[in-house]
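In the present case, backbone shapes were mapped to integers, as reproduced here:
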Amino acid sequence: MSGRGEGRAMDLTPGDARQGPGVSTGRIGANAPAGHAKAGVSGGSAEAGVSGGQAEARVPAGHAEAGVSVGSAETGVSVGSEAIAHGSLGARDVCAASVASLLIIFVQLGTSALTMPFAFVNLALSPGLALLANGHLFVLVARRIGRRGPFMILIAFESLAYVLAGYWYEALYLLPLGVAGEALMGKGGYGRLRRIVGLWAAYGFMGAGVNVLPVLAARDAFAGRAVRDGLDPAYVETYFEMFSSLPFVLGAALFGAAMAYAGARSGARLARRHLGPSGLEAACGTEAARAGGEG
């Protein structure tokens, strides 16, 4: 048990050690920067019960390939973003999401009202233009909250607005859409800008279904209500003609998705600039987290 630590497997010294459990401030195998771990070990430890040392594989500083560590985790949730991933919405979060939802609905209504004299622009383009503008707000608020719920709150307010306007059947489409969106975000999804952007783009694509539903399932109810609300019967007929055409519906859905994606990407840049890095990157501080967490 005497001699140099790097010479034999069992010769352990405070400076260097090739293998063995319970090694402190040591080094194992290939030289790796301090504070690394290959698998499931915490802050600055090695592959087998080594603390404060260095690990077998060459990995970036403060990085762990699997499991959760104080520094970071490539898979799983790191300590810095765990609260964001698993926390519940507080009163301030609900208030912020509610105000943002009302603003988003106001922009939707305003865009529709401004383009009403132009049927094609109103039916085909105005939803996408609203998604472009609202993408900034949604991403900023969702990133700031960092927890599950903002999308469902938005959908709940939109559903309520349709019910109050007399188009209650739209809620039957929107509410399952909100549940599915929150489920797809998963744990920690709101801590990753890429997922928030993807959610808003998917919402832009699926939003065309709101206009298709009256054509498929509530034609008479929609037409009667629209005329009572003061819409021109010619406009209602144009509405049915356009949203009865599959190419038009697909084109409107793709345009909505593209505009939503553009708005969300712009919002993500604003979030990185003014709100700092996402929870994953802030905890990890690695290029891998930057690529996986922010897109």
In short: Residues 246-274 form the longest helix (29 residues). The two ends are 51 Å apart (CA to CA). The chain is about 60% helix and 0% strand. Confidence is low (pLDDT under 50) at residues 2-86, 278-295.
